[in-house]
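Catalogue entry: protein

Sequence with per-residue tokens
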Amino acid sequence: METFQLRAELGEANLTAQVPCGNIDAIVERWGDILRQQPDADHRDASKDFVIQALRTGEHHIDPATANGVVEALLWIVSTGDAAEQAMPLVREGGVVLGVEITNISGATYNFRTTVRQDEPVQIVLPTVH
């Protein structure tokens, strides 16, 4: 099954996940189910707040459920946002890196910047010993 890599960064904090392309709809739907339990909340803001809090505290590194939630929230944010029309077809094909760069603008104001680029295989060149 084809995969894509999801990378999120907030300052020094980061998350990297390899995601099967065939699971995108289920992942987005799972986060949507969580959001529907909060009918009065602004779902976009609630999702962003969850991601920011997890990355700032490092909770995603110690709790697998939080790490999964961050992946779900980020995919929901991207797939329901302005970048979805351009980004999601590429992500669904696989072999790309979906990047979300989160920048603190001021106080509690954050910018989420989405990028999609071709995944480049990592090459390690070892010195030749004669």
Notes: Helices lie at 24-36, 43-57, 59-62, 64-79, 84-93. Residues 3-118 form one domain.
